[in-house]
Write a structure and sequence with these properties.
The complex is a heterodimer of chains A (156) and B (110). By secondary structure, chain A is mostly helical. Chain A has 9 helices and no strands. The chains are: A mainly alpha (156), B mainly alpha (110).
């Protein structure tokens, strides 16, 4: 759950706000991909989008599951480094997010074949839709130049 | 009109200033988000209310994300332009060559 700024902005367009908020919350908090991995992916994308708002928020659920800031930083910037401890499946998912908006041409049949070694088709669709949706909302918030208000930096 | 809105909206006489700035918002969000600044929003507010700007921005963001994702999956419409149900192989031939378009935004402003 983001802080109250994003819902307040969306609420200017109430018909859009409800389905968008529902999709945002469900895609992050539910599904069959580890929530901690999704949280790293979400922050990786927000940093790439240069969206200070979503990049500053943190999932309380992921933190309760043991996700640390060090692990987030490692996952965003050094996930290919074996010393950082990410599994082959996690590396592939992080690469998927990284390449989606950096160089989508690399996400070809060979890439998806590699991904299917670690993830089911349902998980790949879950990841792809999660990546697409969150990046889109991050680009929107970037365009607004939004930043979290004081005391509102801890989403759940 | 669809092609003109994509390829040539800035110079076209078929679009109103309000439509042109909405198209420009869409274009900039993708190619130069830094150009969507306070001055741009001041201009946008001459034509749209805050509710419409939020609707446009969320719609553009949503489509920006999903079209990139869908593009990697290489799937195409089930129906041909004349309404026939077609295989993915045939649909790929019909729709698979996505043409590149010239940007109406001068390179100096991207």
């Amino acid at each position: 759950m983001p802080d109250d700024l994003f819902p307040r902005i969306l609420a200017r367009a109430p018909e859009q706000a409800v389905p968008l908020m529902r999709a945002l919350i469900m895609s992050h908090g539910q599904g069959n991909v580890d929530h901690r991995l999704k949280e790293i992916i979400r922050i990786l994308l927000a940093r790439f989008a240069n969206d200070k708002y979503f990049a500053s928020l943190r999932s309380a659920k992921a933190r309760a599951m043991g996700l640390t800031e060090q692990c987030i930083d490692d996952g965003c910037s050094f996930y290919e480094d074996d010393a950082k401890g990410f599994s082959a499946a996690e590396k592939c998912a992080l690469r998927y997010a990284d390449l989606m908006f950096l160089d989508a041409n690399q996400l070809d049949k060979a890439f998806y074949d590699e991904m299917k070694k670690y993830w089911t088709e349902a998980q790949i669709m879950e990841l792809g839709a999660f990546i697409a949706f969150h990046y889109g909302m991050q680009m929107f918030m970037r365009s607004l130049g939004a930043v979290p208000g004081p005391g509102h930096s801890d989403g759940g | 009109m669809l092609d003109e809105g994509i390829d040539n909206y800035a110079a076209s006489k078929r679009f109103t200033p309000a439509e042109k700035i909405a198209l420009r918002y869409s274009e900039l969000m993708s190619v130069n988000p830094d150009a969507v600044d306070a001055a741009f929003f001041d201009e946008l507010r001459k034509y749209y209310g805050d509710d419409e700007i939020v609707e446009l921005g969320a719609f553009i963001g949503f489509n920006l994300g999903y079209h990139t994702f869908f593009g990697t999956l290489k799937f195409y419409p089930l129906f041909s332009p004349d309404g026939r149900l077609v295989s993915q192989a045939e649909s790929t031939k019909l729709y698979g060559r996505c043409r590149k378009r010239p940007s109406p935004i001068p390179s100096s402003r991207r």
